């Protein structure tokens, strides 16, 4: 696994930015090579320089925007006096497209990155997008993505909102499904805490099995659903009128629309 190399400055260090930084440090990034700039000056891991204002120093090799998308104007104002330009600008601002970033920030290479929360344990999904990057810039971006888990480059930025809805927002939907599965078990009479443990362990095992399988999840589902058996009876409910697919399509579409709205607001 490649290891990211500093110096790196993070503008913001919330839940996602902090999770990524902690994972990078665990993978070998020197905390002393990191500067976190936040309004509070708090929340950075031990050994990381934490500031409330831009230091009077030359631009770092890597600059990461780890803010909410509605804070893009504040980030632009903060970075106005920056001396020089970073080699790599990483942005995790949801919905803010490459053109909007290029219009506001200067860097040799700008890369959009959309991670999801399991990056904290090295099991995340990170989608990447850039324009005209060199091989060296691509390798640098991948060095940051690799310790976080699975990553893929997106060829068409028009797909980024859909990828964000699927993978970026997806853990939230899975957590909701886990909670619903547990609630359904409790409705059948199981103690609520026990139903929750069963639901989470079931999801964990099924996900690991699906990731290691050489067939699709659809095939795996059919393999465990014997004709006339109890699994098949339950799946018949999920499959009726494509109810589950319809529900999830509407769910992802709602998230995709919101990403597009945020992109429009940032332009």
Describe this structure in words.
- With 267 residues, the protein is an alpha/beta fold.
- The chain has helices at residues 15-27, 72-79, 98-104, 135-145, 160-168, 170-187, 192-212, 217-224, 230-239, 243-266, and strands at 8-11, 34-37, 49-51, 62-65, 88-91, 109-115, 124-130, 149-153.
- Strand 6 (109-115) and strand 7 (124-130) form a beta hairpin.
- Strands 3-2-1-4-5-6-7-8 form an eight-stranded mixed sheet, with helices on both faces.
Topology:
Layout: E1 8-11, H1 15-27, E2 34-37, E3 49-51, E4 62-65, H2 72-79, E5 88-91, H3 98-104, E6 109-115, E7 124-130, H4 135-145, E8 149-153, H5 160-168, H6 170-187, H7 192-212, H8 217-224, H9 230-239, H10 243-266
Parallel strand pairs: 1-2, 1-4, 2-3, 4-5, 5-6, 7-8
Antiparallel strand pairs: 6-7
Helix pairs in contact: 5-10, 6-7
* Relative strand content: 5-15%
Q: List the secondary-structure elements in sequence, H or E.
A: EHEEEHEHEEHEHHHHHH
* pLDDT averaged residue by residue: 93
Low-confidence stretches: none
State the helical fraction.
40-55%
Largest pleated sheet: 8 strands, mixed
- Lateral arrangement of strands in the main beta sheet: 3-2-1-4-5-6-7-8
Structural class by sheet pairing and helices: alpha/beta
Please count the helical segments. 10
- What's the number of extended β-strand segments? 8
First-to-last CA distance: 36 Å
Question: Rg, please?
Answer: 21 Å
Estimate the global geometry from the Cα principal axes: elongated
